[in-house]
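Tokens in:
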């Protein structure tokens, strides 16, 4: 498959090689977590945003920084705190005395990759400032709209809501994150390796970009061209529809979730070097893409039925698409 991108001679295999170089660069910083790295890269190529949720100290911010630094593009980091204001993210109109007029001062959201560290420590009002940015790739301030440059991705980290000083993310914002990643504790070998590589200096200091922003734009174009057969699309709709009718869930997945699952499946297939989606792609991504959007019923919460378990049972019961 030859791609009609900035360089017409680039094939899907060429671009998959670029994606693997990015993954290899990130793996020099994050040991023993190839699936989390691949999922983050999948979200980037699916033109989405990723939420990294886990307990403190397991490398959430490190993964976000490593992915950002592996690409030669603009990067901004925001530390979310309770006193952070929406204008601290989007920017503000300030009066220029020399020109005698207001001019817009862009905020940190105007970057290709925005790292939002501990996003659930900010107030809901500040969290909501990201809604327009994440969905429409634009910012509106004082009645004026400013587009965001592509590629654009928000990589947010958060601690579980049981931790002190956190606010739960609004449902509307969780729905705008394409996937949620949980890193987990490293195995014994990876933690031992970490002591050797991280003990004296940070591997981020020596991490060099493995790709440019133009490479990411070409990869995104390649992902858009990945074929999704009608039975696969019907399977997607059936799976998302099953979450809306499940008696164990009081809020199922939205139509936006269906679209995100479709885009992520395309990206996942492209990273395998395929120009078509298979059911395994959908099943692999269903948990990371859908689970954080689902709300269990009070009865299910009492029985500690997590959305991931409910979703796994729905996948088991749903017939596979016919060829």
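Residues out:
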């Amino acid at each position: 498959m030859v791609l009609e991108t900035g360089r017409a001679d680039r094939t899907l295999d060429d671009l998959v090689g670029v994606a693997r170089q990015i993954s290899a660069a990130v793996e020099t910083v994050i040991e023993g977590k190839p699936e989390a790295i691949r999922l983050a890269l999948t979200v980037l190529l699916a033109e989405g945003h990723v939420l990294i949720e886990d307990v403190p100290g397991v490398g959430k911010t490190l993964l976000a920084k490593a992915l950002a630094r592996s690409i030669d593009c603009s990067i901004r980091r925001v530390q979310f705190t309770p006193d952070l204001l929406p204008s601290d993210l989007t920017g503000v109109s300030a009066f220029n005395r020399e020109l005698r007029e207001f001019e817009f001062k862009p905020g940190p959201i105007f970057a290709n990759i925005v790292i939002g560290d501990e996003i659930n420590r900010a107030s809901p009002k500040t969290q909501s400032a990201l809604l327009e940015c994440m969905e429409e790739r634009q910012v509106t301030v004082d009645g004026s709209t400013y587009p965001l440059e592509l590629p654009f991705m928000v990589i947010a980290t958060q601690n579980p809501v049981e931790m002190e000083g956190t606010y739960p993310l609004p449902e509307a914002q969780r729905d705008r994150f394409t996937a949620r990643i949980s890193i987990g504790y490293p195995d014994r070998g990876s933690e031992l390796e970490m002591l050797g590589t991280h003990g004296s200096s940070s591997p981020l200091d020596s991490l060099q970009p493995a790709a440019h922003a133009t490479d990411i734009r070409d990869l995104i174009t390649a992902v858009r061209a990945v074929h999704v057969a009608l039975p696969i699309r019907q399977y997607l709709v059936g799976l998302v529809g099953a979450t809306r009718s499940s008696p164990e869930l009081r809020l199922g997945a939205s139509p936006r979730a269906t679209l995100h699952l479709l885009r992520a499946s395309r990206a996942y297939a492209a990273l395998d070097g395929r120009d078509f989606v298979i059911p395994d792609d959908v099943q692999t991504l269903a948990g990371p893409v859908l689970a954080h959007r689902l709300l269990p019923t009070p009865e299910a919460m009492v029985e500690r039925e997590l959305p991931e378990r409910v979703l796994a049972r729905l996948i088991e019961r749903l017939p596979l698409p016919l060829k």
